[in-house]
Structures
1.
Amino acid sequence: MRHFRNLLVSSVCLALGSLAPAVAAPEPPTTGGDVVIRRLTPDQYQRIVRDVFGPTIKVNGRFEPEPRVNGLLALGAGKVSVSGAGLAGYEAMARDIADQVVSPANRETLLPCTPKEARAADDACARQVLGAVANLIYRRTVSEGELDGLVRNAGAAAGELKDFHAGLSLSLAGLLVSPEFIFRKEVPAGSGDRIDAFSKASRLSFFLWDTGPDSELLRAAAAGELDDQKGLARQVDRMLASPRLEDGVRAYFTDMLGFDAFHTLTKDAVLHPKFYADVPKDAAEQTMRTIVDHLLVRRGDYRDLFTTRNTFLTPVLGAVYRVPVAETGANTEPSSWVAHEYPEGDPHVGLLTHASFVALHSHPGRTSPTIRGKALREVFLCQKVPDPPGNVDFTVVQDTGNAIHRTARERLKAHATEAMCTGCHKITDPMGLALENFDASGGFRRDENGVAIDTSGELDGVKFTNVAGLSKVIHDHPALTSCLVKRVYAYAAGHQPGVGEDAFVKYLTTGFSEDRYQLPALLRRIATSDAFYRIAKQETAK
Amino acid sequence: MAMKPPVRSALLLALAALAPQPAAAETRSFVVSWFTAAAYLEENNCPHGLNPDAEAFFRRDLAAVGESQEQIDAILDARAGAVVGGSGTPAAAAAAANALTFRGRIDGKPAHAYAFPGSVPDAHIKTIESKWAYGFDLDGKTGAASFEDPDTHEKGVDNEYFRAIGCHGPERPSAADPNSTMWAYAWHNLRQSLPAWIVTVEGADLSKDGPVVVKFEKAMEFAPLDVNSHTMADKTFRIDPDPRWHNEYKATLKSGQITTDTPGGFRMLYDSYWVPEFDLRRARMRLTLNPDGTVVGIVGGYENWRSLYFAYASFGINAEDQAGLDVPGTYYALKRLADADPDPVTGENTRISAAFRFEGVPAFTVPLRTSQVRDR
């Protein structure tokens, strides 16, 4: 992983000079979206704790789930609050984290000072500790008055408990359970049509690093540098050059690809005995490594993710894909990742053939061309496929042992003769059937029930004969890139782009093309744009 | 200009080196998923019945060394009381186990029945009396003392190990599961701590009759299990370059069955507690490549009978008390039926003919990198 990150840093640093937009087309005006308040995702919460207190602090607890809105959990995060039980969970986590920080095992390395008297309050030391972390936790400059309050809380508790560290722990826990930490609250600037500097810093940081702003970004915000185009660009370029960009890119694609579903993914053990506990984890990681390597390390064309023969595998995945991948260490060592290039002509082509797609979008014991086709349209092309009506008879489709309809294609054909089903199946099945060579666990197969699998199909009028053909059609589909642009922007801004932002999305899409579909360039265009920080005029800002 | 002879020779040698070598156009590898003694299921191959259960042979042996009926009852009652819900105490059960373990006698003193099985009188346990047993004709002789293989119908099959242990209930497979023997129990428990063993078949076209090469080699990895606790298929293994664990045979593929051409050695690192190492001499092997991609095979040869004895002896009282297998009785049977390699001094045969059955699932193999060899 470290090696991977070093490669990433080198390549991004080398590439930074060419990240500037290829054509300096003027950015169109936008109306902006509503101010949003987003709850931290579990990954963001954990990453901030790691950033502020270091990797030795463990986050123990469960988070309430976010709904998926317009294909993204990031948008769902702006639609949720915290339940009573959820708040209790946050409090328990906050107390646990704070206790770990001040514990005898950690205090010498994590706390910058030692109290004069361990059994009494020490305001100076408490101020030093709280002052060092409060800005990072609240993601803004904390006022002296606020800091005074935090120190007072620590002192009162220390006096009551006759323990400096216990008092400090309570004050730290108070920071971590505060809505200012748990929610990403954006504040309109004085003009009322843009967010303020600290809100900009947060948008930037969560967008590019999936964590809160670091000290340098907060400093720049406090100094007004983010309100200046040059200052903003300087910070954006610094962040794009950081190895932490990988965290941000992973977070985006994890969300876009729906990898949260891996937490509950199961397969029929009799039919798919190789699909044991490590497979879902490795399947997701395979795709993440492929994406990071292709988009960040190699600075490749986003579309080529669907046709690339390069990927990364572990011995576990090797068994699923029937590819020789040897352990590189001793028996007791964890499996390591190896780069793998499928030969020309091999059916494993691009992301669609990863287990993270074909296994994730299958039933436990059988494939589903319909679910796969639906996912392909919704995830990669941003096309909405209606859910099936509630009274559909799936009997034929589910009967994989059907003596007459022995392949999924035949069963779907029989099923889709029902008029109410035909319409939707037409837009999902022709692509999904092209993936039938991959069983419900991601393993390759040539036939089903002894019948050779027919993988021909068509997508929006373009015909293909196999998965390589489908991947090429997806690669060339105009909606592929416009979908990514729209979704990345929605993810970053926290709202689905409205009509007033159409021109800006189109501008980004054109720019993405001009930038040869390189993701870092798209990220930079968004992060340095004016539209990214613009909001619908706020009455309260008057 | 005529070439000088040395130059011409060198050129010819070089050309010979460039000529197409009989390379393996098709290679299939398998990781061994089962390895057990080859036990043939036949209802009537113990015409005198099976060997008695543990209580019966404990009583027999204790009586033979002069224990009184009262003392025998006391020992076995204490042993029985150790079971769940029994009335005995752990101390009494331990004392009973000790009495059973030391039921041998040397100069009238108690002796360890498993370390010194000759200290227990020979019970002449029942052995297989049948025509059928898996294996091979290892000595080129046919006669009343040899078997016929039920699959290949090869006559003159030598498998005296099967004869020795075949009338023990725990070593008899069931119709429902041919792997339900004590050997299978051992394999099931040991396989995750054993190195993986790889069978590789190389040939020009494995769908056609012709010469092939069969390898049986040790891997660097364990064989992992799938979610159903079966050996996982399609995993990749690094072959251990240690020549001690490299078994290679020229063989012939005919009608889907592969049979080694000439006898050879067969060495397999196994489990230090059960059988530390198989070292079959004058071994032969046959394999069947199944349509589902798996392999099943038999390897037969002459094994050191004491090595096989200590597989049971190392389990001691547990082999007898829990599995119901008469360990000293097995010692005598193995010693009596050993049929090869007589000791030059005593004239006693040191090896016994045996056959082992194995199964394998598809696997990949890769050579071990040089750096990994160095770091072993």
2.
Amino acid sequence: MALFKRLTETQRPALAFTLDGQPATGLLGDTLLTAVLTCAEHVRGSDFSAERRAGFCLMGACQDCWVRLGDGRRVRACSTLLEAGQAISRDPGRQP
Amino acid sequence: MKPVVIVGAGPAGIRAARTLLDHGIRPCLIDENLRAGGQIYRRQPENFQRSAKQLYGFEAGKALAVHHTMDELARLIDYRPHTLVWNAEDGRLDLLDNGRAESIEYSRLIVATGATDRILPVTGWTLPGVYSLGAAQIALKYQGCAIGERVAFCGSGPLLYLVAYQYAQAGAKVVAVLDSAPFSAQCRALPALLRQPLTLAKGMYYRAWLSAHGIPVHQGATLRQIDGDQRVHGIRWGEQTLECDAVAFAHALRSETQLADLLGCEFAWSSLNRAWLPQRDSAGRSSVEAVYLAGDGAGIMGAEAAQMAGECAALALLEDAGSTVDQRRREALQKQLARIRGFRQGLETAFPFPEHWAAQAPDELMLCRCEEVSVGAVRAVVDEGHWEVNRVKAHCRVGMGRCQGRMCGLAVAEIVAERSGRRIDQVGRLRGQAPIKPLPFGVEVQP
């Protein structure tokens, strides 16, 4: 299921990526957050209770959308553009 | 020679850069975003097709003018997009550019760091599907997406009606608008709002358009709870409930002041903004030599005022650096800024801060979404005798997490003030700490 709904700008070229190892598709010009939330319902687990989070401010301030990339980088999903072939993984967070 | 540096490429920073360049100074303009424009005039990625009219509505002309200026400047100045300033000390800024760390020394500095949404947490606000009003607007403007299938817009402030209108226009299902301000407050504000009749008319237009299109607008309606398990299922206010799968909420905007704080600027309480703000003279000089402040980062006045303040700050900088500047131009700008300040007063009357929020917040409400600290945990610290926000933070980690209190800090102060029986301006202000945003491990350092 998806959280975000695409309303417009849907004619862009598709980009394949993986989310937690599963194949997924986004569009050229998507942020990682858009790419993930148009095919899933969260981007990370919270640090102290593994509660599901899906970002909040979308402008790089709240820090609640960090994801990990296949090359080891950790980035804010809201301010990083999707590239073809990226392996995005979601941090499950920590249980209390 | 050390450059003049501007932090923030929104309306204030861009105008400041233009003004400096016109006077023969080639500044370095540092911006955290991938593309310049700031938030209100945020640009979509280059391969998107929508027109400026579709993206910015009534503001299309102004947005295009800002973008055009920036396109010209980008070739002529040292423009550094996608670059985070995470620390400032001793005339030097520490930067992070795509995982690479470096420092830059400045001769003079203009801080134009803008604003974020002002958030008063509500039960369920960390659920997937809950976003700030600004975030909802960015999803649409920058990505062509709605934050859900059935969206409720809550809180107050001019952005509330604007974003709800933009969503409905773009074909999203807007299930309701909940404005915590009563209609009577908006009537009381009319005299002051008439100082900018065009802006007032636009606000009234959005409101009327929503009603005319059958979208329920509830005034004096305070969002009490967001229900859901793994994601949003509905909202509650008063005795009413409504099903939806996404919520956007905020109570106007807050200035982003952490960099000014690290620079050592003196702060003063602003009752208009209900916040501590870095002090500046009418031209934009801060209390720190060679540091200037412009735009919403030094007090919320909107994009148009930000441009004027950016030009004022640049003119003050030029004058301090020994250049001759046009005094009449400066006086005209300051006169216009004063008029906007009067309008801003009216907005505060129309969308008053919900002062009862702290008293009504339940103990189990999660206040700090990073460290996951509840309202009750903060109250317990206050009950032990602590009433200064930094002390409270030290005791229970509230505001200490990844976001450094950007999301919860103002709400924490409200809770501490209410519980300790002090006025909101008597509980101190959360100090900024470097790094103001998280740094990943393994940062590559440029020699």
3.
Amino acid sequence: MAGKVKLGISLFSLTPLFVTRQWDLERCLKEVHEMGYEGIEVVAAQMVPNYPYPSDEWIQDFKGLLKKYELTLVTWSAYIDMGIRADRDLTEEEIIQYTRNDMIYAKKAGAQMVRTQHAISPKIYKRMLPFCKEIGVKLVIEMHSPHHPEVDVWKEYLEIMRDPASEGYFGVVPDFGIFQFTPHKIAIDSYLEGGCRKEALDKIIMEHESGRSLEEIINAGDYTEYEKGVIADIKHKFSAPAKVGDLAKLLSCTPYIHGKFHYLEKNCEDSTIPYGELMESIKNSGFEGYIACEYEGHRFDIDPKEQINRFAIMIDKMLK
Amino acid sequence: MAFELFNRILVSDEDITNITVEGIEIGYEFKLQYPSYRGTFLSCIEKLEIRIDNQLIETPRIGFYINGKEVLINELAELFREYWFITDFAVLRIYGEGLEIGTKHKVEVLLRHRIPYTGYFGNYMVEDAACTKVLNVI
């Protein structure tokens, strides 16, 4: 791996194998180590037994496995589960409690940072800073599609993150899904399985990529109601990707990157996210940290291992 | 995230077994897995319907056993501190008569669940997970 960019992986990438018990946590760690990954992210709500209060014994066992497979726990991934109560949303104090709890267990497990979600709110985020400093753990927020740096709440977050008072304890995790401009194979297969005609879908995608609006595409063809829904879905999801140039603006407060993808072809290339340009931007920036494979094309008939192996090859090639 | 992908794991492939206490048969049980990529709090389950051989089971007959405790379906909404880990099976206990060993039965489960981190635009995503399997009684 060139420079100081390191290859990491969110174990979320292995979801189909983990939830069907084909691979347990140790198998996940062993396999990603053998594929050359150096750092991991654990989605605590997914892979940590007795979450949100794992035992000290489990923590010790986990740390032993990390040592055994020469892996660094980079990120403990947390949610803002604001809707867990049936009668109301969580209060500000409850959100702080859950976030603090994740940070405590992340610290015990040796994680460098906790990834949270933008729903934490700028107000609560600022309130977490003293605890971040006290415990020595960064609290970072993922910028996930459909967000991008020009979204109002993100302008506010970025100002907080860039404030020298945060002393590097805050930061953004750009998820490369924000740069996705056209449907991936998994979505295309789903549209076709739903009844969209292939020739119609090819035409829709071509017109979407040429910049035509929803109305222009619908009016330019003889589409079924389902196909009109497909057009609306594509325009909704893929019409406002972040600009590649936005990444350079984020990197000064980026300690970690989510290399999101849904499907890589045999040539180890992604035709829906401009990885080549994004990796050039990273190389030129002097970014030092992990870019984590985050495979999300989960289907039980696609081998996640093959996909994450292709990701490692793609990133390695781009960083040389 | 396409949650419907995980519907197939909702009903475990493991067999149905009869429940006996000191040799007395008091019902039967089978296993459920939470149909998602991560675990959840039990309070996020908004509805749980069970049909055995097309017959709806009345909720007072159902015990939902997880984390060493059995709760009623109607209690789930209150259990916002009880977590259902993604690879842990919940045991669905149907109290009443047992089932004849060696027979097969159609098990249909509908689980409506709220995705608790999706409410930032005002409404939470609510998913209906449905799964039907034919299970053996052993």
4.
Amino acid sequence: MKNKASVVIVGGGITGTSTAFSLAKRGVKDIVLIEREGLASGATGRCGAGIRQQWGTFQNCLLARESMKVFENFQEVLGTDIDIELKQKGYLLLAYSEKEMDQFRRNVEVQHQLDIPSRLVSCREAKEIVPFLNTEKMLGGAFCPTDGHANPFLATKAYAKAAERLGVEILMKTEVKAITVVNDRIKGVHTSQGFIETDKVVNAAGGWSAQIGEMAGLHLPVYSERHEILVTEPVNPIMDPMVMSFSYNIYCQQTPHGSFIMGYGPQNEPRGYNVNATWQFLETMARKAAWLLPPLKNMRIVRQWAGLYNMSPDRQPIVCESEIVKGFFMGIGFSGHGFMIAPAVGTLLADLITGSPLTWDVVLDLGRYDRHETIAEPSVV
Amino acid sequence: MNDDKTIVCRCEDIDIETIRKLIDQGVTSLEEIKRITRCGMGPCQGKTCGPVIAREIAMKTGQPMEEILSPRSRPPFGGVLFQEVLEGIDDEE
Amino acid sequence: MITCDLLVIGGGPAGISAAVAAGKAGLKVLLLEERERLGGQLTKQTHRFFGSVAERAGTRGIAIIKDLETVVAQLENVEISLSTTALGIYEDGVSTALKSGKMIKIKPKAIVVATGAFEKFLPFENNDLPGVYGAGAVQTLMNIYGVLPARRILMIGSGNIGLIVSYQLVQAGAEVVGVIEASPKIGGYLVHASKIRRLGIPIYPSCTIKKAFGQDRVVGAELVRLDEKWKEIPGSQFTVDCDAICLAVGLNPLIDLLGQSGCQFKYIPELGGQVPIRDESMRTNVPHLYIAGDLSSIEEATAALLEGELAGLSAAKQIRPGQSLEARMEEVKTHLRALRSGPVGEKIRSGLSKLTGEALPTPSPRTNAIDELSRTGIASPANLAGVLPDEKRKKTRAYAVIECYQQIPCDPCVHNCPFGAIKPFSDINDLPIVDFDLCTGCGQCIGRCPGLAIFTVDETRDGDRAKITLPYEFLPKPVREETVDLLDRSGKCVGQGVVKSVLNTPKQDKTTIVTVEIHRNLVQDVRQIRVVQKS
């Protein structure tokens, strides 16, 4: 293990590995990535793995579209032969009120500015896309055929391998114990394997990013929340897109392997690090899924689990360098959509760390909360 | 037992050569192997292949079995239909 | 939401025993069993149990379960839910289960998990061909559904399951082409090994399977010898023809349900692999969560019965304090310690010491008296000489020959001699010693020996005729004055004899006691008869 590094990245999920790759690709040497367990063992490996470009703010649409470009050309961009099982069969968003329909209408306009090929759909069109969809009470929806799904573990592995090829040292089963800060500057990282001298740390610790912040003496405005998910046995392909509703509160997708993967946003979930599954989730999920997608009634749930959403005050990512502790960078608070924008986030963090101008004109800094400039993204589960 | 065609995971049809190649590439945890190959994600949920793969990892890396075999916690064991979950709710209401 | 004092998951010996103990202590118990009847593995165990007579040794598993069913049915506060599969134990103390097409929720005050074990798998080429079975599946097909899975079977593994299932396959009319064992020694009880050797089934120690042959189904197997370091010996491959390969290579505790209960585990190969951490009273580290049976350590059903009782009593003590249950709990612990005290319990003892962190037990003294027997399943001449009376005594009266050379926890013979001729044990692992002054050669002990290791010999008559009486558990049964083939300890036909008596009353419980007149030179060689099939 190196005892000196130019950058220490904390977290071996999609954000950490994507950042490691972007940095190394720009020629930064002596990068060390530290992962407490294994690659994608936190939220990345537990997520629904959808990739959506249908957002309501220009900035989110931009990050998602730019990320999708990377996912679409993954093998070429990374120089890897790993197939991340990208499936682009769309996202079908369902509207249950005029207000929601109006929102979709505005969203589509924003999306069109970035050439995202989304469109509004009627109930009849929605049924053409998913014939067994229950359109009762539904007013219509929005559909983007290039949205999709990829295998988060393979994507993380590909990023990690590409980064290693470019010289990044990745330490698994290594835990950060403390971060040394002197005169508001990062001086090093104490790990379970020893001390690494460095002046730059990247907090990509997902569910545990608040704890990493504490180690640097920072109180980051993020917390973690359990979100549950389940998967069914595989069946023949019967449903192309991810079906999602913000108001009915559900997402459901058939993976290329044939299994259905689904979840919903929990109500009144306490903050914390608990990732145990609950029987109540099975009941609520069954009710929701069976009503919206009736044929699922006869499918078998084979596994349920949970992961941590790292929530920020405006449910939007925080990607910046700390203004208090120099050299402390962060890609945190993804609030459930870290996977789909990770390629762009890696690029932005590489911009920040190398002192380059941001590749895209986005505002994701921590200071936005003090400036009362929170991002008002209308379309989240 | 040195032939590629030996099946380790009968649920997902994964052979031992695939597993050994991954271990050689440095993929040395059950969780990672599971996510890459789907080994252990089938109907038996890794009951048969888990110990076999763990032994392969132990043989190749010298890691103790105790560290390799971390108990997983993913109910519902044996699986349950959505319909069966719903019937259980209806019964109480 | 269903509520109860105690939820018992698993209706095998451990689970029933826990439910009975807790039920007798006044708890409202709900017992879940996945199958349509109680009993778990007991329902397939057609052989007689070893262990202590106090724990029903000498009785067949299928009879034990009938008794247990009767006992549990009489307890009004114990509800049995059959065809009910536990799905999960959740952090809020609620368990879910699938019953009659519904996911039910149960909130008990305590839980005993007794889910048993599942069979280990062996990687070899073509192991996914139809015809590769787990021993449990073979036993289920044969003994529960009456279906013979194949005609010519190769058994992999010489533990008790491999040996017992081989014997049962022959009883069901199949041929077992061999039992192979990777270790240099037979894994199971040697009396079981001797039982199948005298049927002519070869046992190959230091041997493993390389591949199965066949396109659509198994037609044979390639085997290879192993050296003392368990490495394949090049060029030692040989093939056998068979239409099924039966895997009996051990069991792993079925811990899945405990995965998110907060229960801690430890990897202890001696106990079967990853096992829940628990104390001597079967309590896990999670309050109100108890375990019993193969889930806690892979052992014989007798241990499961005792552990189940202990778990049930522990739960009762916790939920309804103030009852005097400690005395019985201590008694059960003492029984368990005795059961595990002999040489065959050494593995379990060392595993348990790892669990509790206690110092390793002192190993049992080693002798080489049964080395040959452990490799071959055939007693050595020295073994035999040690259990025979002197020449003078042989002439005066018939006598029993107890071919029980390995210390195993088992005592029915001692309790079944009407003349007290088998010396009382100080330890359940003692070897039986016959007092030939008291032994009349009556043969009462023959059918009570779970290992079918007792024979009586009558060589009191002048001339070259003598009689041997032996246990016989096959069909067709011989009839009086029928001429039968005489088989030695390796199954070789060494001559013919005439059946003089066939004892087959309900008291024998299907172990027919057959007396055959044979040449006196053969009395110490013949250990099995074969009814000559009439064409």
